[in-house]
């Protein structure tokens, strides 16, 4: 509702929205998979179901459940569809590029000057609401999203269908 109100204020008319993807960072659910009940814990991953699970859904019966795979503040993100390999991962796929530097390590190794330079080079507008060290979110502290997407396709987890460039980050 808040998003609809904000969009209506910006565009001076009512805007209809619907939720396409609800992405959590951590989840723990009981799920029935291949006829058996499992306790499935996903950390840094989302459930992603192939099209066979959506026989009555007008769109997902053709595509499967969409998966958003973000890069970093300064790189592309991808909207993906699941591939056959998700069956081997209990219908799970990563929902991000992943880190090459842990947060504490990034705060030590990446200066705010370097962080600002990386964001400036990406041409992404940064909106900050604090004064703390956010170097842990530097684009260089994340894996190359192109390599991640290549691996996801190679392992038949997901296929990118839309490449998204960030304009602004909070």
Instruction: Find the structural class using helix and strand composition.
Output: alpha+beta
Count up the helices. Answer: 5
In spatial order, strands of the major sheet run 4-5-8
**What proportion of the residues is helical, as a percent range?**
10-25%
Rg from Cα: 18 Å
Strand-residue proportion: 15-25%
User: In whole angstroms, how far apart are the ends?
Assistant: 20 Å
Give the overall form: globular
Uncertain segments of ≥5 residues (pLDDT<50)? none
* Strand/helix succession: HEEEHEEEHHEHEE
User: Biggest sheet, in brief?
Assistant: 3 strands, antiparallel
* Overall number of strands: 9
Average pLDDT for all residues: 92
Description:
The chain has 170 residues and is of the alpha+beta class. It is 25% helix and 25% strand. The protein contains five helices and nine strands, in the order αβββαβββααβαββ. It has helices at residues 2-11, 60-63, 103-109, 112-122, 145-154, and strands at residues 26-33, 36-43, 45-47, 67-69, 77-82, 92-94, 125-126, 158-164, 168-169. A three-stranded antiparallel sheet has the order 4-5-8, covered by helices on one side. It has a two-stranded antiparallel sheet with strand order 1-2. Strands 3-6 form a two-stranded antiparallel sheet. The longest helix has 11 residues, at 112-122. It is globular, with a radius of gyration of 18 Å. The protein starts with a helix and ends with a strand. The mean pLDDT is 92.
């Amino acid at each position: 509702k808040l998003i609809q109100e904000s969009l209506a204020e910006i565009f001076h008319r009512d805007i209809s929205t619907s939720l396409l993807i609800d992405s959590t960072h951590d989840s723990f659910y009981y799920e029935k998979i291949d006829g058996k009940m499992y306790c499935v814990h996903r950390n840094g991953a989302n459930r992603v179901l192939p099209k066979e699970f959506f026989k009555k859904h007008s769109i997902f019966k053709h595509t499967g459940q969409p998966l958003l795979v973000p890069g970093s503040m300064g790189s592309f993100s991808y909207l993906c569809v699941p591939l056959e390999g998700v069956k081997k991962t209990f219908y799970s796929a990563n929902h991000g590029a992943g880190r090459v530097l842990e947060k504490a390590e990034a705060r030590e190794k990446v200066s705010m000057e370097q962080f600002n330079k990386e964001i400036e080079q990406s041409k992404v507008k940064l909106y900050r609401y604090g004064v703390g060290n956010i170097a842990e979110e530097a684009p260089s502290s994340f894996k190359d999203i192109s390599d991640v997407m290549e691996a996801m396709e190679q392992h038949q987890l997901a296929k990118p269908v839309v490449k998204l460039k960030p304009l602004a980050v909070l």
